[in-house]
Structure formats: structure tokens, C-alpha cells
Amino acid sequence: MKWTLIEALISKSRKTPDIPMFLQRVDRPLCCKDITEFTGYPANDDELYLVGDQDIYWEEGVKGRASMYDFRVHGSPESLREIARFTCRHCSKKYFTFQFT
Ligand SMILES: [Zn+2]
User: Model's pTM, two decimal places?
Assistant: First the structure.
């Protein structure tokens, strides 16, 4: 990634009002050379299970799904706000991040 792109993304990210509260660090998924759009947190356990099943797990990059993210088996996190959801405006891929409190 070229430095100019990183700069552009950072300045864009600062202007975006709907940035989620990152509990540990800012780790916003990137896709199609752009930042993804934050779409909110799972509203309930059913939505959480869908996220775990369908969305791409992001942790400083696309990460393979660890079995601990099978929320049906291991239960919900303490707060659903630990799961932040994102969508790429360009290709509509969905991502999620998981930061423990
Ligand atoms: Zn994309």
C-alpha cells in the first residue's frame, strides 16, 4: 500500500462520523483500497450468530476464523458492542471485528 493511500484513508476515516468505539485499538477493515463503512453492532444473539457464520473476520487484516468465534458454541461476548460490523461500499463484502473489553 502506498503512503499516499494510507494518508487518504486516515483523513477520510477522521471525517467519517460513525466510527465505532474501538476498545483496544483502531482497526477498521480495508477493502477495495478503501475503508469500509461501519454498520453497527449485532442487535441480538440471532444477529450475532449470522455475523459469525457469514461475515469475514478482520484483525489487522483478513483472518481465518478461529473456532472461538463460533458464538453458538462458546456463547455471546459480554457485550455485543465488542463486535463491530463493516460493509465495503464497492463490493458489499461484510466484515466484523471482535475486541474484548
Ligand atoms: Zn470491497
Answer: 0.74
Distance 2 CA to ligand 1 centre (A): 18
Q: Please, what's the largest Cα pairwise distance for the chain?
A: 43
Which residue, among 78, 77, 63, 83, has the nearest Cα to 21 in the 3D structure? 83
Task: Please state the domain extents for the chain.
Answer: 3-98
> Mean pLDDT for each consecutive 10-residue tract of the chain (101 residues)?
68 62 76 94 94 91 75 86 94 91 59
Q: Residue 63 corresponds to which amino acid?
A: K
Q: What does the radius of gyration of the chain's CA atoms come to, in whole angstroms?
A: 14
Distance of CA 28 from the midpoint of ligand 1 (Å)? 13
- How far, in Å, is the centroid of ligand 1 from the Cα of 32? 4
